[in-house]
Design brief:
Layout lengths: L4 H22 L6 H7 L14 H18 L1 H4 L6 H9 L2 H5 L6 H5 L8 H21 L7 H26 L4 H20 L7
Protein name: TetR/AcrR family transcriptional regulator
InterPro entries: Homeodomain-like_sf (IPR009057), HTH_TetR (IPR001647), Tet_transcr_reg_TetR-rel_C_sf (IPR036271), YxaF_TetR_C (IPR054156)
Keywords: DNA-binding, Transcription, Transcription regulation
Length: 202
């Protein structure tokens, strides 16, 4: 039976969503096409009607994961904490640490993306740049800082978030107290770096 364009688009989106979740949870190389299509509620045979290869899917899933993460940022602006502190609190939370499948693609993919197909690397790099720009817009201005200094501050914060989350996840199974300490310290110190005052709402 021929599948309608609408149903085909729905199936493709389901594959991308399932792939993004599984790739973030277990890594690009630890998940196969059959597992992805099963998680999407589809058969393995239909995969190549949507994607030329697993690498092509990985590139699209990477881009979609960044879009999903970036789409959460506007909600932070309604928080009484303020946009930046709300973002730091949400990013450096136990929930984010314990749910990589639904979390930031930078923290999930940074350690392995250099070994992936160039298309995946390109989508990852573009997503990282979008994060830098989004955070830069949310940083309060500092007297005499200038655009270059503000961008440097955004890069430093994002880089610390990604590395800190990786460490918090790595230490959580055997040393949960240290993992929690990493998250708390980053909430405090990055709040100071971002705002220049206070403790970052931690």
């Amino acid at each position: 039976m021929k599948v309608s364009k609408e149903k085909a688009a729905e199936n493709r989106a389901a594959i991308v969503k399932a792939a993004g979740r599984l790739f973030r949870e277990r890594g690009f190389d630890k998940v196969g096409v059959a597992e992805i299509t099963k998680a999407a509620g589809l058969t393995h045979g239909g995969f190549y009607g949507h994607f030329a290869s697993k690498d092509a899917l990985a590139a699209e899933a990477c881009e979609a994961a960044f879009a999903e993460s970036l789409d959460r940022l506007p909600a932070d602006e309604a928080s009484p904490e303020g946009a930046l502190d709300a973002f730091l609190t949400r990013y450096l939370s136990d929930r984010h640490r314990d749910r990589p499948d639904a979390g930031c693609p930078m923290a999930a993919f940074a350690g392995e993306v250099a070994r992936q197909d160039p298309a995946v690397q390109e989508r990852f790099g573009a997503g990282v740049e979008r994060f830098f720009a989004a955070l830069e817009k949310r940083l309060p201005e500092r007297d005499g800082e200038g655009d270059a200094g503000r961008r440097d501050r955004a890069i430093a914060i994002v880089s610390a978030l990604v590395g800190g989350m990786a460490l918090a996840r790595a230490t959580a199974p055997t040393d949960p107290d240290r993992s929690a300490e990493i998250l708390a310290a980053l909430r405090c110190q990055l709040g100071i770096l971002g705002n220049g005052v206070g403790d970052g709402g931690a």
